[in-house]
Amino acid sequence: MISVPEAQQIIRDAAPEPEVESVPYDRFSGRVLAEEVRASFPHPRFDNSAMDGFAVRWRDTRSASRKKSVSLRMKGEISAGTVPAIDVVRGECAQVMTGAPIPPGADAVVRVEDTSGFDSRRDVEFYRPARARENIRFRGEEIEKGETVVPVGRRLGAAETGTLATFGYAEVEAYRKPKVAIFATGDELKSPGEPLRPGEIYDSNLPVMRSLVDRVGAELVVEEEIGDNPAKLKQFFERALSLSDVILSSGGISMGRYDFVRAVLADMGLRERFWGVSQKPGKPLFFGTMEKILVFGLPGNPVSVFICFMEYVWPTFERCMGLEPQRKLEAVLSEPFPRDPVMHRFLFGNFWTDRGIVKCAPTKKLGSHMLTSAVGANAILESGPGKDHFKEGDRIKVSPLPWESMGNQS
């Protein structure tokens, strides 16, 4: 067996460099930018109204009040998307809608609620004074032309996607999403919803892998549940190798009589990089390559699948998509952590802040078959081997689950 750091380094060295492709605007969400995007024009592009109301010269409304209104002659109407064909001079106003360009001569907008309204045919009564520049969105006040609007390496969410649309970007250069094939082995496995016969169990590993592939932002292209059958395994690999960048299995890689995955892959020419990591759970973890294709053989126990995915597969996907994997934290234990004498130990748990100190606690369910240990967890806690357990108050490494937030703070 090799150590956890050795396994991580081998995977990093084998992973290909991120590839870049052009992505259309309706596919921006979730992609990672491979280029810095700059404003193609100032925003706003022109002075425009922030309210439905009337564009005025603010000095013309100085004496307006509810008791004594000011009357201004309406010059015309300007709607959003039009170019003003009028200007505003002393004693005049122009009806403007939200987003409409400000006509020459006007330097404020009075909202319609503070006037006699849009039904006023010629003269408009103003019931409060305007302030200079009030309710006007000025050219370039948000961002000037050439400024960075979305930096390279940013994953595109709703805000970034909307910002790129604001500046008219129909496509951008982004890192390619890895294509992924997943499968589970075991004659005892049934899909949820199917009836169980004696000795059979429901497969939780495919749903776990499917969910994590989706969460990290990779693209699932092949998914299959395969029995303990070498011929079917070979058929699956032939298909998966032609369609995917990464292949993930659960089960079939240990020392059992029906664990065929490694043997089938070896016959197909896969280069085995390692098999067996000094860790608990997940000791029989397998990793190999076929040219640029990465193959992870995850153990069959559901906690092992989940933790090995987060520790080895998730950061690999992040690097392939141009992201820098998140750093591990250090936290103070609020409960003991059961170290293993010879194995690197991983456990689900939770972390939070208490008076500015990051604290954590591991799950009390230690079995690699106990997937409920992950329910409600927001982190994975880990420790190198050691004879003595960590005590309350000792410091330990914590990997926050990327989709979870820190627990309650006090």
Would you give an account of this structure?
- The structure is a single chain.
- The longest helix has 19 residues, at 302-320.
- The two termini are 43 Å apart.
- This protein has helices at 4-14, 158-166, 205-216, 230-243, 261-267, 302-320, and strands at residues 20-24, 37-38, 48-49, 53-56, 70-78, 92-96, 108-111, 123-126, 136-137, 148-150, 171-175, 179-185, 189-190, 201-202, 219-226, 246-250, 271-275, 279-280, 286-290, 293-298, 329-333, 344-354, 357-362, 379-383, 395-400.
- 18% of the residues lie in helices and 29% in strands.
- The strands form seven sheets. A six-stranded mixed beta sheet has the order 15-12-16-20-19-17, with helices on both faces.
Set out the fold topology:
Layout: H1 4-14, E1 20-24, E2 37-38, E3 48-49, E4 53-56, E5 70-78, E6 92-96, E7 108-111, E8 123-126, E9 136-137, E10 148-150, H2 158-166, E11 171-175, E12 179-185, E13 189-190, E14 201-202, H3 205-216, E15 219-226, H4 230-243, E16 246-250, H5 261-267, E17 271-275, E18 279-280, E19 286-290, E20 293-298, H6 302-320, E21 329-333, E22 344-354, E23 357-362, E24 379-383, E25 395-400
Parallel strand pairs: 5-6, 12-15, 12-16, 13-14, 16-20, 18-22, 21-23
Antiparallel strand pairs: 1-11, 2-10, 3-9, 4-6, 4-7, 5-8, 17-19, 19-20, 21-25, 22-23, 22-24, 24-25
